[in-house]
Specification:
By secondary structure, this protein is of the alpha/beta class. 42% of the residues lie in helices and 19% in strands.
Length: 210
């Protein structure tokens, strides 16, 4: 059977959330209260981002340097991606974070030819903004509707496997055939009685399918 893996980026591919890390590094203000409102559903991803960007003191070069120097990925993600390619399985990155972050991190580790879908980070000098080309027409909660993307991208007859760790992963977890979860997502799945398999890193996924 062919498999289609749908993988969250921040905290799943990466060892830490790149968005949270850059906010900690560059936002000068009470960004934590905005993040709490986002977690509670009081702010959409787009609203939270725009308010947070007003606190930013950075430019494109400093952002890129920070991500290149500080971000690390799961030790087993590249072997996992290689196995997906060799076995003809589909692999997609679905992120409610930023395309800029994914591009920079993938370049750092020489990762190519993995399609990803994320919010667009718009940088003009020292000004930042967000664009959400993959937002749901019916639900404004996330900038990227991972559920819509997963349902559109899943090949006919393939088994959909969702892998994630955070708040934006709970909706696609409800629609996936198999869910691997850790962190916040694992807790949310348990609370909502969504079947999910706990995982530590991508070696667990490799053991399961390869």
């Amino acid at each position: 059977m062919k498999l289609a893996f749908f993988v969250d980026f921040d905290g799943t591919v990466t060892k830490e959330d790149t968005c949270e890390a850059m906010v900690k590094a560059f936002a000068k203000g009470d960004w934590k209260s905005l993040d709490e409102k986002w977690q509670q559903g009081e702010l959409t991803t787009e609203e939270c981002a725009r308010q947070t960007f007003k606190m930013f003191d950075a430019d494109e070069e400093s952002m890129k340097k920070f991500l290149q120097e500080s971000m690390e990925i799961d030790d087993y993600f590249i072997p996992f991606a290689d196995l997906c390619r060799k076995n003809g399985h589909h692999l997609y990155i679905l992120s409610d974070g930023y395309d800029f972050n994914i591009k920079v991190v993938f370049e750092k580790f020489g990762i190519k030819n993995i399609p990803y879908f994320a919010n667009e980070l718009v940088i003009s000098g020292r000004s930042f903004d967000i664009r959400c080309p993959y937002r749901s027409k019916s639900c404004p909660r996330c900038g990227v509707c991972k559920t819509d993307l997963m349902l559109k991208l899943k090949p006919e007859g393939a088994l959909s496997v969702y892998i994630g760790d955070g708040y934006s992963d709970i909706c696609p977890a409800k629609s996936a055939d198999v869910v691997f979860a850790k962190g916040t997502l694992l807790s949310l799945c348990q609370q909502n009685k969504i079947p999910a398999r706990a995982f530590k890193d991508f070696s667990d996924i490799i053991k399961e399918y390869f």
